Amino acid sequence: MAGLLEAAGPAQTGITIMGKLDLVGEAALLRQRLVEVVNLVLEKEPTLNVTIDPADSRGFEYHTGITFTLFARDVRGELGTGGRYLSGGDELATGFTLFTDVIMSAIAHPASARRIYVPFGVKTEIRKCLQDSGWITVNGLVHEENPSVEALRLECTHVWLVDQIQQLDLQPSN
Predict the structure, then answer these.
(1) How far, CA to CA in Å, does 166 sit from each of 34, 140, 146, 156?
(2) Strand (E) or helix (H) holding 67
(3) What is the pLDDT of residues 78-116, one digit of tens each?
(4) Domain map (residue ranges) of the chain
(5) For 80, which of 8, 56, 98, 119 could close a Cys bridge (C-beta 3.0–4.6 Å)?
(6) pTM of the full predicted structure?
(7) How far apart are CA 119 and CA 164, in angstroms?
(8) Secondary structure of the chain: what % helix, strand, coil (to 5)?
(9) pLDDT score, position 90
């Protein structure tokens, strides 16, 4: 078991260490499968940082062979995990689960889009010009007495009033 623990880390180093171990039977077969999987992954993506942990037994009662966990630099936690398992009794399958909460926290979120409320009756050309300038237009469907109030209700940051763009006061009133 000590040799397996020493093999944890960068894949190529770990495979070299595992190659020196006197593994027999199922253990030798699993080692060979691991070598094949690592080589296939690195053949497709040579710059990928692949690590191995031959002593990891998480999910051992469910998985039937090689398992994997996906990580990303500067991201806390696993992006996903998976491996080989038996499906429908004795049919071999491979699957994975992605943890969308971790993925969503890891991706860069774009700045909020500029949303402008365009009251009912404003010419189509004006709406089109605003959209061409990068605005998301929220179009009024009926006449509103106070377009600014409607714009705030619809979570807009601006409103088209008196033939111009007007920024809304988004600060809560006391």
Answers:
(1) 62, 16, 13, 11
(2) strand 63-70
(3) 999 988 888 887 888 989 999 999 999 888 776 667 899
(4) 2-106, 115-167
(5) 98
(6) 0.56
(7) 12
(8) 35, 25, 40
(9) 84
